[in-house]
Design a protein that fits this description.
2 domains; alpha+beta; 486 residues; Serine Threonine Protein Phosphatase 5, Tetratricopeptide repeat; elongated; Neuraminidase; four-stranded antiparallel sheet
Length: 486
């Protein structure tokens, strides 16, 4: 009997340990960092709701052998790139199969041709749905070209080959792609050290964009500065690290990531001149994990229209959520064998407020939906970005109700109060959020109000002080004169 009770207790402990306080599996449990770089646990921001794998496309007679890239459209379609099978699967927002793209048809439903050869995919690596033009862009990597298809019928419209006016040594093997509202095309090619390739709408070469600066080894720098020309020729060249992925934010800025440890930056928000203008106003830099022997290596980025972005770390299988200001909201995800964990995370995309994360080795894509905690974080960021201060404050208060140790939420409330010129309340929240920069801004505003409200009192005190000083000086000199007369 005693042995039975012990076994029952052990089973109960095992069952309960698999679930977090909010009822979700501990597989999805989140964490963040405070001002002192300590790890603080949070509720799960997202939980698994759907798995897209070979079973999802079983009626095609095909299987998913890898997930190289994922893109979504505003109407909820999901485009999954399978590089191994040279195919793109199209599914609806619930993961139900709709179609696949492999051999491309023309508008007459015949095989499209280029120079007499049927247009078919060979080892594609990237896909992007251009909402403005209703076009689907595919990086047909094995054929060294970009295919542009009609976004509804998936029929052939045009192909972009290596531009004749393209300079540099980079091979035109497009891997990832995005297109802005001015129809400029930004392409990441394999192992390019010359930067992102910017193409005009007609596919002609425009420039290399946003060169990634490497970290400088001071010993090598000093050695090269004193080496002879012959010695320099024998030394290895330092190349700019390659980008892994590229996308656009809601303001049209190009955002990119690199997993190269030699890169000075890991995440980029590039302006028109190609300079990195990523906002990093949080208590930590946008570098992923802080306390680990295996630094984060970002392979993909997904951005909401209001600036909140998710970074996918292939090293530890983590997803990092940052807001527009570069403040860390939450981290979730891990590597392992449980459902919802990763082996080789490869791509990430937003589907409304859901996240789609592909795994190359597990041959599937997970659809995660936000919990109450995750939804409050997203809604707070959206309201703040749109200037809806009261709405944002209400969402941040909901975040704190679910997780009282999230400094970013206190800072968020403080920013909204600051915008409403409630400087005293802002100071209180910035102090709780350990944000010294914004505390100083709020204090400056608070001091200005105090000075205005008490101007006459301060003025009278100042006048009285000046009069007392002058009176003491006059009295002192009169006393000295009297002494001199004696």
């Amino acid at each position: 009997m005693k042995r039975f009770m012990l076994l029952l207790l052990a089973a109960l402990m095992l069952f309960t340990s698999a679930f977090a306080a909010d009822g979700s599996s501990n597989v999805y449990q989140g964490y963040t960092y405070d001002f002192f770089r300590n790890v603080k646990s949070t509720p799960a921001p997202f939980v698994l709701s759907q798995v897209i794998d070979s079973a999802s496309v079983a009626n095609t007679g095909r299987t998913i052998e890898t997930v190289t890239d994922v893109a979504t459209s505003a109407d909820g379609r999901i485009f999954i790139v399978d590089r191994t099978n040279s195919i793109i699967f199209v599914l609806d927002e619930n993961g139900a199969y709709l179609s696949f793209i492999k051999t491309i048809k023309d508008e007459n439903k015949k095989n499209a041709q280029i120079n007499g050869v049927n247009v078919s995919l060979t080892n594609p690596e990237g896909v992007f749905y251009h909402e403005k033009a209703g076009e689907l862009y595919i990086c047909d990597t094995g054929n060294q070209r970009i295919l542009v298809l009609d976004g509804q019928t998936y029929t052939f419209k045009r192909a972009i080959l290596r531009p004749e006016n393209m300079t540099g040594e980079t091979e035109f093997k497009p891997s990832k792609i995005t297109v802005d509202n001015a129809d400029r095309i930004y392409v990441v090619v394999q192992s390019s050290y010359e930067g992102i390739i910017e193409l005009n709408e007609d596919g002609s070469f425009s420039r290399y964009f946003g060169v990634n600066e490497p970290q400088i080894n001071m010993i090598d720098y000093l050695w090269k500065s004193i080496a002879s020309d012959k010695q320099k020729e024998k030394m290895g060249k330092t190349f700019a690290p390659a980008f892994n992925n590229v996308t656009l934010d809601g303001e049209g800025f190009v955002m990119a990531v690199t997993s190269d440890a030699a890169s000075a930056d890991k995440v980029f928000r590039l302006n028109f001149a190609g300079a990195n203008v990523l906002r990093e106003m949080g208590n930590t830099m946008v570098i992923g994990d802080l306390k680990t022997d295996t630094p984060s290596a970002f392979v993909d980025i997904a951005v909401k229209p209001y600036g909140t972005y998710a970074l996918l770390d292939k090293t530890n299988g983590h997803v990092f959520l940052y807001n527009f200001d570069g403040e860390l909201l939450c981290v979730f995800g891990s590597k392992g064998s449980a459902v919802g964990q990763f082996k080789t995370p490869s791509t990430i995309a937003w589907l409304g407020d859901k996240l789609i994360i592909g795994d190359a080795d597990l041959k599937c894509a997970y659809i995660y939906e936000p919990t109450d905690f995750g939804n409050a974080l997203l809604k707070a960021g959206e309201a703040y970005y749109n200037g809806e201060w009261d709405v944002a404050t209400a969402h941040f208060e909901e975040v704190l109700r679910l997780c009282a140790n999230l400094e970013t939420a206190y800072v968020g409330i403080g920013k909204n109060l600051l915008m409403k010129e409630d400087y005293e309340g802002a100071m209180y929240n910035f102090k709780l959020g350990n944000n010294r920069e914004f505390y100083s801004k709020a204090y400056k505003g608070y001091r200005s109000i105090v000075m205005k409200e008490n101007f006459w009192v301060i003025a009278l005190v100042a006048v009285a002080f000046i009069v007392s000083v002058l009176w003491s000086e006059v009295a002192y000199h009169q006393k000295q004169k009297r002494r001199m007369k004696k």
